[in-house]
Structures are given as C-alpha cells and as structure tokens.
Prior knowledge:
This protein is α+β, with helices and mostly antiparallel strands. It has two domains: about 5-195, Aminopeptidase (3-Layer(aba) Sandwich); about 205-370, no CATH class. The radius of gyration is 27 Å and the shape is elongated. It has a five-stranded mixed sheet, covered by helices on one side. A four-stranded antiparallel sheet has the order 9-10-8-11. It is about 35% helix and about 20% strand.
Amino acid sequence: MTDPSHTQAHARDVLRQFIDTHFEDQVRTLAQLVQCPSDNPPGDCAPHAEVAARLLEGMDLVVERHAVPAEFAQQHGMRSVTNLIVRERFGDGPVIALNAHGDVVPPGAGWTGSPYSGEVRDGWLYGRGAAVSKSDFTTYAFALRALKQLRASGTPLAGTVELHLTYDEETGGMTGPGWILSQGLSRPDYVISAAFSHHVVVAHNGCLHLEVILRGKSAHAARPETGADAIEAAAALLPALYRYRDQLVDRPSKTPGIALPTKIRASVSSNLPRSSMRLAALQLREVVQLAPHSRQLGRSRKSNQPKSGRSPSTDRRSAHDGPSSHPATRVCKRSRHSGIDQGNWRAMSERGSCRQSLTPDVEYIAHQEV
Length: 370
C-alpha cells in the first residue's frame, strides 16, 4: 500500500519544481499582459482578452472565447468584453473555478515610467495590473500547468479546474462572472477569487460611485441674467455633500470587520457595506435635490437684472422660466461590490420641473452591485 504522506510529499515536490523552473516564463507572460492596456473606463477590453487567449494557447491550454453582446456590454458601462474560460478535467469530482479580472482602473498621474511597460526593476515588475489582477492570470495558468505535470508524473487527480478570466471587475461584474453564470456557461461547485488575503470571507466592503454633473448656460456679458453659472451651483452643492459625509460616522456596519464608510469626496463615497448602499444612494439623491444651488442662482440672477428695457414680468421669466435658465444636474450612479452576496439595482429616474420648483433636473442611470 502506498504511504499517503509519501504521495503528498511527492506531489508538493513536483508542483514546486514546475513553478520554480517556469518562474521566468511566468514573469515574461505577466509583462506581456501588462503591456496591453485594458483600462476600465473606457472598458474596451476585448483586445486584451485576445492577447491573453493566445498566450494561454501557447501553453497548450484550450481556451474558450465568450464575447458579450455589444448592446449588453454598453448597458453596463463597457465598450467590448470577451470572457475567457479554460477547463481541465482530471476526473470525477467537484468543479473549482478560479476567477480573476483583466480590466484595470486608469493609471492616473505620478508614474516615473510608462504604466504599460511591464519593466522588471530590482525584483519588482512595474505596470498597471501587475498586482491586480493580471498577475492572477499567470498564477492560475501556471498552477494549472503544474497540476497537469503532476498528473503526467503518474499521480491520480480528481475533479475539474476552470479558469474564469473576466473583464468588468471595475464596473460591477455583470458582464463578467454574472454573465458567465446567467448564460449557463459554468456551474462551479466552488469559486476562488483573486484577493490579497488567505482567509475565507463571506462579505466584502464595496464602493458607491456617483457622478454629479452641473451644466450651466452661457450668456452675453450685456445680459448675464439669461445665463447660469455651474461653478456657483457646485459651490453650494459641495458643502451639502460634506455635511452628509459627517453624518456617516453614525452608521457602522453590522458585518464584523467592516467599520464605517471611510470617505466621501465631493460626489464619491467609498467603502460602504452592501446593507448601507441602497440607503446611501437614496440619501445622496435627497442631498442633491435639496441643495440650495438652483435656488440661490435664481435669486442672484433676479437681483442682477437690468432695471430698464424689460417689464418686471419679463425679468421674472428670464430668471425662473424652465430648465434652460438653471444648471441641469445629472447624477450618474455606479456601484461596485465584491463578494458573495449579489444583487441587481434597477434604473431609477426622476425629472423635476423648474417651472414648479427651482431644484435642478436629476437623472439616475442604471448601475449594478456584485
């Protein structure tokens, strides 16, 4: 009878030897993934998926390309999405899916080199996605190759390993993992997602992003009362948002390990537990609607009108008649929540009339949390 401990020790040795032997190959593969931009936004990620697929196929892995319909992708803030699935069946047993995302947030400012260089310097590989989560593409791929090598060495294995390489982690997950599951492309028994922790977790803090756009109206200097100053409107709106931020300290999460919402910058609130996100969205909408920006603009515009050349009734109409006299406010709402608990948020829209009220138009577009 074979000693189980001896078999396990042999398996570990084979796996470690394969990983160590192919380490430089893994680094070169990661560099190639980093060198192909996949910023999200704008979310045009199908080209990167093709690069990744060809690299995987060069490792003798069979890659399935699952293109998401363009209309569906655009509904969820993406330009193009192709999800990749690699399946390797070792025998009867459960299906374990390893999920990672290839999209990255835009690099921003402050880089000392190209964010797409994939340069290795002093033992560190630099570039957007080098850590999150293009490195997981290579980690999963080479781990799967190591398992195949272990099987080839005569060690019996069971179950199936799948790689789910998706591209919408930055926009909610509905065109990535959500789409794979909804289309019945995979029915895994277990899922391991890319993370920095080696602990098993049941929840994760997320983000609620809101974009508030205030649109002014240009006017001639001789008739300033016919225009609207978006900067003046924003100056009144921001203090209202900051006052709302100060109230968040009284809303701790009921989930152990997740404390308070960490920050709100202008129109961006981060680190909200899922249980608080719906309420936060409703409250932020109320904050925007009740902010005095349009009301103040209406008063100031009326007081600055010329006292000759038009009747008082005409002056009142120019100050208050319809949305064109006031900044139009559009609130674009997007949320991202990583974790097991999932749900869809429906689109909400509300139109206010400046003829009845001086509050600006507010529009909420569809968003998701995953």
